[in-house]
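Throughout this chapter, every protein is written as a compact record of paired, labelled lines. The reader may check this reading against the record printed directly beneath this paragraph:
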Amino acid sequence: MFIVGLSHKKAPIEIREKFYLNPLQQDLLLSELKNHPLVTESFVLSTCNRIEVYLKRTDPSVNSSFVISLIAKIKKISFDFDVTPYIYTYEEAQALDHLLRVACGLESLVLGEKQILGQVKLSVERARESGTLSRYFNILTNLAVRTGKKAQNETAICHGGSSISWAAIAMAEKIAGDLQDKSVLVIGAGKMGEIALNHLHDLGVKKIFLMNRTGEKAENLATRYNGIAASFWNIKEILSEVDICFCAVGAPHFILDKEKIANIMEMRQGRKLTLIDISMPRNIDPDVKTLAGVHLSSIDDLHEVVDNSMKKRESAIQDVEGIIRQKILEFNGKVLKLQNNPGSDFFQQIDDTRHSEVKPKNLKMF
């Protein structure tokens, strides 16, 4: 078992968005892996904070360079910089431990984030539909999902708010104060957009606008959360009115550039505007933050509010790690039944120290 990945811990958003794989690109990568003679099983996890490729390989030549070259090929780009500082790899027991920690939210930007478990499930289902899972990874992924559920249900790892959307709203409150008397635009009606709507509704925000590519979905969600569905054609007028905008679209380009926001700021006549971009890749031009009266935050800025809200969840880390150790023993027992030689269990018990990363060789190429 082998993992190649990068995450928010080492790679800033401008690097992560280069590696981000949309659903179609994930399917293409799974197809490449399925057809490779040295890869027997695989799945891909691509979120706003991490891109990880999980492999069962028959030869160590299937390494970091191999995986990164496939990603570059699929995205039709070249990585003209040294990616070594951003990439991590895990093997065998360390890889198993890492996957379970990811599923439990221990590796998330927001400790205990609930969304990651759903994202793991979707990644597994995509791989299953692509035919890249077999007996070994079926056992592995089922165990990972059960471990994540057990951690959420039996510990305080998800105490309080525990999502990117929650952190984005906490950031907005830090910048703009109480949101009850504010008007807010949410762009994007996907999972993160809907979670943001739910939080805003619970806070009693005065007026909520929702924009989405699919008008019917925007109408349904706006009705559910007492919001107003709006058309992208009216984005300038609405942005000239609202106090805060959350963007969670995931389009392959900027939907709000510096020139457009500059024109909007003229319409606002000195009123400040708070923009929080939780999209991957980013959908608001980072140069927007140079405009007077504009406060722009991205995912990587959320640690400022997250760090102050983690004490309860941090107290649950040991409980979650205890669950992980139990599940590792369970996994080893199941794997033994699949192996021709019952004595060849290569998953050794992980010691009490946290696993170390396998440092990849210099990957400046492509």
Summary: The mean pLDDT is 88. The chain has 14 helices and ten strands.
